[in-house]
Design brief:
449 residues, six-stranded antiparallel beta sheet, 9 helices, 41% strand
Amino acid sequence: MKPDEIASLILAEGEKLGASDASAIVIEERKRMLRFSNSSVTVLQAWNTITPLIYLSIGSRRGGCSIEEPTPEAIKSTLEILAKTMRHMKLGDVESRLPKGPFTYHAVEGNYDPRVSSSEDKLTAVVQTSIDSALSAGAKRVSGVLVATESNRLVRTSAENEGRERGTRLELTVRAFVDDDSSGQGVSCSTTFDHFNPELAGIEAGETAKLAAGPVEGKEGVYQAILGPSVMANLLNTTAASASAYMVEIGMSYFTDKLGQSVASNRLTLRDDQQFPGGPGSHAFDDEGFPTKPTTIVENGILKTLLHSSYTAKKFNADLTGHGYYSGSYGIVPSPSNLTVEPGDYSKDELFEEVEDGVYITNNWYTRFQNYQTGDFSTICRDGIFRIMNGEITQSLRGLRISDNMLRILRSVKALSEERSWIKWWEVDTPILLSHFLVDQVRITKSTS
């Protein structure tokens, strides 16, 4: 079936089943993935998919599902099961309706490059460039993955909204190794080849791995810390998620009852700019068919806005923000899409000069919250970890984690660098454009007990 046929069938069947509202989101993707290890390409995979994402509301009940093989029979039977299941669900607190259209959408510039899907040879050359750059920077072996995606997205709703957009995305993650204990990571993420930089990603990974050689066990303590873009991208993803009114509603946000209050240093301004030209997560409309716009979440440390879908806007008596996105069985919930952080006024070298006794953490993974409402969390430091004394890196470290509180981290941001980069990899779900951060008094513990 073609996307238009799928969307029309979903809405027709939803109406037959008594749905108050329905949204059909049909994602058509052509994706290719190149994996490389031991400095050579080892796997090349390609697949084409058409995936319908379905949202229904029946009175105050809401639900969603997806279909892997969208045949007419599968769509009809799946919708019947969804509607039947929803009628046994607990009633929602409010009965909301999808935003009434039609709306006018403004296409996001710079989000499509036909070259992304035109040549596998070009993708192989990209990988080779990153490998060669990492080796030249000091790595002994290199691994990683490149994913190239071309997508077409159709959103059609029972509220007379219809939007179409196409886009491309390149996501490269490079891991460089000097030995098993000395590694570095570089990433590059872009919608076009014009702003894609595999060479820089390789250099960053290789230089970090070389600098990380000969690590010693780090010591627990409270340190000034320079947190690299990959670290802060991961942490600020939780900040944006906490700004979802849905997460506030279900008690998984550290921003509950803090709207309009100071939640961070006045040096931090965080936006979800879905109209950012060339933004890897930019969209002209959300999955409710509502037009997107730049939304300031935190401005100079003040929590300015929660992100809303039609349901949370009704419940919170707030305006729609254009953040209603499909989220599995939850249906549509407010979610961030394309984050940006205002740059600082320091160079990276000047940030180091501010540190008398501290650490530089380049990457992290396995971020876990002990308490979502208070913001208590821990995350394991990965790849290059370094001791800084009097503005200079003096030692490579290993075996550390950050064990702290997100609100305290946000309020302790002392400075940001001018230079920003896009970060998107499997520990960073929502792409984000940001800098290096200098944070005061970060609590560091051992990664193993």
